[in-house]
Design brief:
2 domains, 28% helix, five-stranded mixed β-sheet, methyltransferase, uroporphyrin-III C-methyltransferase activity, porphyrin biosynthesis, 10 strands, S-adenosyl-L-methionine, 283 residues
């Protein structure tokens, strides 16, 4: 779909001057962008975008100014407060400002902080949700975050806090007891500490784990391992951030739901990967 293709008939929101729309760009694949996000791109005067936003998405806003505001761990980047105040400045200049963030702006994306600053400065906002990498990225890897035979709960956690360290506020013992599946964002840097905390909290060393990097893009890679072997296998794999890490038996479903591999002609590895440990059916 190019920038001239009309959107389906709908009463589309009008992007007014002086507004900021906080918008999720999805996990990577431009096709996972929402129609509301595309509508925003076509009306924006300025697009302030993050590091993981694909160039093809920016190409849908050819008439807008594109301002990079990416934040990547371990690399020089703008301070969050400076980004937020820049949005205020642009809106007060009468611009239609699209703040385009990878995934969903409210899922470990600092969208709440930016929105709060804008509202405090009297700038009107609109929120456009996006598909979070913790759901969409795992789906592209053939891993459902919920499955009736596996889990009735899933917990999403971040692998680092505001200081860049592993979050000290997380109660790993409670998370281990309370959630059958754990999805970790931005966890590679502190994976030794995180895996150790989960093992100390009682998660089994043989529990399945998947690490998905560059999720939903042509460069996507998936490491399947176990919690006990995670640190060593990840180091040996050479995989680098950004990554989503999934801990739990739902990872086994990749053996039957790896749809990208099947599209190339590869057969499913196991049609019933959860059969081990399942109670025997009564006669």
């Amino acid at each position: 779909m190019d920038s001239e293709t009309p959107l389906p008939a709908l009463d589309w929101p009008v992007f007014e001057p002086g507004w900021v729309w906080l918008c999720g760009a999805g996990p990577g694949d431009p096709g996972l962008l929402t129609l509301h996000a595309l509508n925003a791109l076509r009306q924006a005067d300025v697009v302030v975008y993050d590091a993981l936003v694909d160039q093809a998405i920016l190409d849908w806003a050819p008439g807008a100014e594109h301002l990079y505001a990416g934040k990547r761990g371990g690399k020089p980047s703008a301070l969050q407060r400076d980004i937020s105040l820049r949005l205020v400045e642009l809106a007060r200049a009468g611009k239609r400002v699209l703040r385009l963030k990878g995934g969903d702006p409210f899922v470990f994306g600092r969208g709440g902080e930016e929105g709060q600053t804008l509202v405090q400065h009297g700038v009107p906002i609109r929120i456009v949700p996006g598909i979070s990498a913790g759901i969409g990225g795992l789906a592209y890897a053939g891993i459902p975050v919920t499955h009736r035979d596996v889990n009735q709960s899933v917990t999403f956690v971040t692998g680092h806090d505001q200081s860049g360290e592993a979050p000290s506020s997380l109660d790993w013992a409670a998370i281990s007891r309370g959630s059958q599946v754990i999805v970790i964002y931005m966890g590679i840097k502190h994976i030794a500490r995180i895996a150790g905390a989960l093992l100390d909290a009682g998660r089994p060393a043989g529990e399945p784990v998947a690490v998905v990097t560059e999720a939903t893009t042509p460069g996507q890679k998936v490491l399947e391992t176990t919690l006990g072997g995670l640190e060593a296998d990840l180091a040996a794999s050479g995989l680098e951030p950004p990554a989503i890490i999934c801990v739990g038996r739902s990872v086994l479903m990749r053996q039957v739901l790896d749809w990208q591999a099947m599209a190339t002609g590869a057969p499913a590895r196991d049609l019933d990967p959860l059969k081990r440990g399942r109670p025997a059916e009564s006669a």
